[in-house]
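Below is how a single chain appears once it has passed through the pipeline. First comes the sequence as given, then the structure the pipeline wrote out for it. We keep one example in the README because the format questions we get most often are answered faster by looking than by reading.
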Amino acid sequence: MDSDRPAGGVDLHVHSTASDGTFSPSEILRMARETGLAALAITDHDTLDGAKQALTEGIPQGLAFMTGVEISAAPPAGFSITGSLHILGYGIDLEDSELNLALKTLQDARSRRNPQILERLRSLGMTIREEDLLRSSGNGQTGRPHVAREMVRCGYAASIDDAFDRFLGFGKPAYVDKYRIPCKEAIERILAAGGIPVLAHPFLIPSLDQEGLRCLVAHLAGTGLGGIEVYYPGHSPVQVEQGLLLAEENRLLITGGTDFHGDITPEINIGVGRGQMFVPFSVYESMVAALSRHRASFFAGPAPEHLEARLGYRFADRRLLDESLNHSSYIHEHAELEMNNNERLEFLGDAVLNLVAGHLLMTRFTDVPEGDLSRMRANLVNESQVARLARRLDLGMFIRLGKGETLSGGEQKRSILADAYEALIAAVYLDGGYSDAFRILKAHIDPIIEDMTAPACNFDYKSRLQEAAQGTYGEVPVYRLVAENGPDHDKVFTVEVCVAERCEQGTGKSKKMAEQDAARKALRSIVPRREPEG
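Resulting structure:
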């Protein structure tokens, strides 16, 4: 074995609370490290939220991470298959608009199906409320596994399998079909998002004999399928061998994962399945290499031009753009190129970012004191936030990394993304001046600044006003919606807050934002500041 290759295995099929798993993405990351996994992909059903949350949390050192999804797709015409085909997508751009739109359609179909399932259960004498499903899912997506879990909790079924076998499975009394996107479209959407489509657990597809499966895999390979999930807890040793042959016959990647769902399937453990499963790191390496080839061939034209299009800026000096994308690990391995890494540009970009962020905050919050503005700017330009901005550009796809960083999932690491984003901003500043850098940053930062008046941030002015008003006047603030202006897609709300018969108004893109803005102003004008005791 290569001494530089991690000894741990990989698990490229894991579900979180973003769909029907019982562990959060942060818990899954911790479990992966404790299990000794070298690489992981979170592949929630019809949603990218699990992968997004994992990246926001931060991937632990030593664990390679790959973005993923599992799409419920309608089988192609001519194949007698009941239910869905499951298409895994790996290495996808989480901000791809077309993919997100397709997934939203599937999420809506699932949410419309739930009330129909509950109504059928009620007709059978079993009462389950939708709010119980939301509680069970942790306010994530809800579907049949959550219904089954509630059925077990209420004593209507002995186990989740029992709930499906008697009530929720295909053809059973509470089964309701749902919309699925065509399999060809699922594959195309994944490819267009820069990813590799893979057929999940092929030997679990119902109503297909071995010859039927061979025909299906060949057909899907002809429409762009890139891989087949061979290593899987539900596959027998014979089926694994058959899967390897199918992959070879159709020139497909070999992948594997446990389909970990947590407590829903307690016999399946992350990374090891029922205890003996092991997917080698070479599977992840092959996927990384395939992703690199796919992106180079699928996205026509030089990659920097695509980044310029996403950025909305065309460089006069392309060398600045090139330098901003050079990670130190790449330059170390390619010293013969005599190129600079992006660290000096990162230094300058950090200063430009702070300047523009300060400018925008000063303009937006005209009566906020310096101390609060400093804290807001720190929240706006911290590593996590800047990495988020980089992901919206899918910047990781363009960064040049050394082999070690590539295999460890460097394109998704917060520090690498944040540094490259700052270097890119510096490149724009040097190439086009402050006005171009300001325009780009304003477009990226303004939506975040709008949200900074929301309670989710650390500036909860409503709570502070309520505490101050009760302490000073013995009453609570009263809020009133005064006006809503603008079209439905771009409304501006005006809210008035009154304390002790004195009122202030605030505005925002939502009622909550307007309330926070009104409370912020009231704190300064209505509630007196306490003078220091002398």
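The chain is about 50% helix and 10% strand.

See the next section for the split statistics.
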